[in-house]
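assembly run, all chains below
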Amino acid sequence: MGLTGLEIFKHLPKTNCKECGFPTCLAFAMALANGKTSLDQCPDVSEEAKEALSSAAAPPIRLVKIGTGDKVIEIGDETEIFRHDKRFNHPTAVTIAVNDNEDVGTKVETVNELVFERVGQRYEVDMVAIINASGDAATFKTAAETAAAKTDKNITLVTDDVGAMEAALGVVADRKPLIYAADKDNYEKMTELAKANGCTLAVKGEDLNSLAELVDKVVALGYKELVIDPGSRETSKVLADMTQIRRLAVRKKFRSFGYPTIAFTTKEDLREEMLQAGVYISKFSGIVVLKTDKKEHLMPLLSWRENLFTDPQKPVAVEPGLHEVGEPTADSPVYITTNFSLTYFLVEGEIDSTRIPSYIISVDTGGISVLTAYADNKFTAEKIAADIKALGLEDKVNHKKAVIPGGVAVLKGKLEDESGWDILVGPREANGIQKFAKSNFA
Amino acid sequence: MAVEIMKEKYRSSVREVVLGATKDEGGTRSHTIKVGGETTLPFLHFEGDIPNRPVVAMEVWDVVPEDWPASVKGFFEDVYNDPAAWAKKCVDEYGADMIALRFKSADPDLKDASAEDCVPTLKKVLEAVGVPLIVYGCGKTEKDNNIIGPLAEAAEGENLLLGVAEQENFKPVASAAMASKHSVIAQSPIDINIAKQLNILISELSTPLLERIVIDPTIAALGYGIEYSYSIMERARFGALNGDRMLAMPMIGNVSQEVWSKKEAFLEEGEPTWGDQAERSLAWEAATSMALLQAGMDILVMRNPESVKIVKKQIDDLMQDNSY
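ok done. output:
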């Protein structure tokens, strides 16, 4: 995306004044192209050049915010279609729908409790969407007020009735809710409301063409804090539309689609609904709105979101420290490995299959694998010995034996000297652990 | 202004692999199943063909699965002493497209059953169901190398999908497939280069076998590194569509084996915030499958009938035409 250094250079004053901190305008242009500096560092840049450069350099998908303070959600600003090319930036905002004619307080409290602790991470849902199912403005207003009082999560207001939207905004505008939605009939008034309250506005089309037209109309009214909905609801169609929107925005810089998207599930069966939401998280939705408030359904969805939005270029680490497999006792074996998650999970899985409760020390190697960490001096006898001490292993087990990966057998002598423990050299590959455990610990 | 729909035209396609063989084709299956053949990325019907829907194979063991949680074991309470009845139940009641038969009994640490012990079970399962079969050993390479040949021979012409050929150990399975007219699972450890290399090795052994390979890219469960598998699969599929014939195979994922060994699936109590084990575990298996489908999985090996049910429904939905 963006312009090359030479394209940017054309728009610069070419004075080589050095005020920007670079020796020449060309050097400044190159740095700009790489995102290493910003245009406002140039004292002489013309307004026309600013206009031309900023619109060309704008991200293909706008970064949009919902909410206020430390609860603000950022969505959009995506630049990729495949996560293996570069990280997806902003995780899908998972949103639970609450009808205004049900017991809003109770449902919102249930949503508040959807918090999970897994592998040292905390997952929670991001937002509640108050749906104007009653069709009544006063009910909608009360529901919004109740929800706002019960949760500090962000809020989406869902109604096509301008009066109801205005009423609800009257009580929750300070939370900067997402306004859903401007459609072909109400867009002028909804845009006004969004502008007046400084809220992000969802724009809903009936298909891709009508969506593009409507977005252009709203932008013509001077508002760009938008989230877009192509209006499709069948799983396969939503997948197609979301793919088109992402492709057109990223590859063609099609401005009408340069906003994050929102998708609504339709499945009545809550299990099916979970899978439907999973497709939308996988394929490019900025926000997904679903009904289920079951922990058992949200935990896998939030885990999947966590996985999908990790940086593919960064090794993923598990928390370093002492991990337990099963319920280990003072007699249990102690294994040592790195905290590279692929290594760790393979090792943990194999140890689990031995059916012998065990301890695993995952040494902090910065999330890199055994041999790489060894080569890089991040998996050393000193470090492992220090971990054995610091983690209090001597109090937890009644023996002084630990297993190291076969790939670093060379550490054995030094580690025994450093730690005073007996070091067993385990198999080179995790798939040898079962056999190893059988002959050593069974 | 009308939106200009972006359609990618890829140079190539995924190979279509036929599994099973009917009487006319030298086997005894009631029908065959085709997998692969895609000319675009998953479910983008608007720009290419997805001629075959992804299929679900349900797992059947030749021993009682003692350590399965009650929430899934309960579905098979009446049949898990009898692999043939178990397989039949999976097909008739739970809609399994295929059966993945695991010869756990061969495990030297369990019963250390011999090939002769295993063959009758295979024959009974073949008689009990008409769907194509996937056959796995016990998972311990040395032992599996001893039983795979006789099993393949006993089912000659059935076009089983035989597991698993690995880079360091592909000959026993590949040779058995070649000799007795079966297909083969080529398993690589979340590594696209090894996946390719293995397919080259197999094709050097037997060129025709190249048309009968299904790639197992090695998948992880949700929360346990599935994103690596997801990206490897996306890259492999992208490579296949762009003309890399050594990656242009359908893919199989051993979902149940990965999911059911994880705490999220089996822990009865779990963390206080994790909710009910039965619901959580079936959701975990189904959601893992969902993610893999989005990366191009063609065959899912699954365990819980309730997970199978919702995943099959989602496949129905995803197979709906979405042309513009």
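Residues 321-441 of chain A form a domain with the Rossmann fold fold (CATH 3.40.50.11600).

The mean pLDDT of chain A is 92.

not gonna interpret more than that til we talk
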